[in-house]
Amino acid sequence: MSKLKALVVDDASFVRDLVRRTMRSQFPSIELHEAADGRKAQTLMGRERFDLILCDWEMPEMSGLELLQWARGHSHYGETPFVMVTSRGDKEHVVEAIREGVSDYLGKPFSPESLGKKVRKVLGSQLGDDGQKASASSDAFRQSADLLTGGGRSQKKETPPPAGEAPVESGNAPLPQTGKPAGGARGREATMVDLRFSQATLRGVLRAVTLNDVRVSARRDDAMPQILEQAVVDVDLGDRMARLNGYVYQLQAQEKDPDTKFVQVVVRFVDDDPQKLEDLSHFIARFQG
């Protein structure tokens, strides 16, 4: 069997590193290549043939959806497994990706196990014995796509994705001063944000935010994130929800008491997408003004 080639496309180097480590751990025989955006991926795909594309949605230069549309119109990539790996898990985006022929959909943040399952599912028998583990779920995914799209996209790609799963060890380093309290003037109603991890979601009060990171106070829970774990920060912009990708930089008890019920989580952002940076700037101005 010839060696399989996979292309990882994401503008965040941190995310590409996570995917690379997971793939090398679970699928050491797959040859990995990387691209920082859709345009660079398109160039690589024009030079050589890949057997699997793992692609982010929101990227500068060319989005994941645009790359998917180009791939499905290309003679070499009409049927190549294409997995969208993104924080955009709302129904309309899932439906849009399905209609354009996506093979499957994995939500950020993801666990190594969930990524491995997706790869086994879309590559199937090409992985030999490993591929057989995923075949049983294909019909369920197909039925899910029909429900979302009312029949799906002709017969080009019927395999649907579910919206992604949603991660979380601890560190005791002092919290950095990341900015003014996001609540603004004294007495203003607390600003709530959701921190999504691969196995849990923490809802907490936004304490400080900059273009680099965010600090949130949340109730202590059994499912705490781990240091360096992927995270997605959901912030309400009023007319839409911004989903900012990052990782857990620090996790600290809010009080010295070991029985404290609250923790403070610092998430550092990794997005390079200009639109996301603009959204974050507006959000900072809105709540620090």
TrEMBL record:
PANTHER family, alphabetized: CHEMOTAXIS TWO-COMPONENT RESPONSE REGULATOR, STRESS RESPONSE REGULATOR PROTEIN 1
Modified-residue entries (4-aspartylphosphate), positions: 56
Ranges for domain Response regulatory: 5-123
Biological process per Gene Ontology, one example term: phosphorelay signal transduction system
Origin superkingdom: Bacteria
PROSITE patterns (alphabetical): RESPONSE_REGULATORY (PS50110)
Protein name: Two-component system response regulator
Gene source species: Halovibrio salipaludis
Pfam families in the cross-refs: Response_reg
Record's keyword terms, sorted: Phosphoprotein
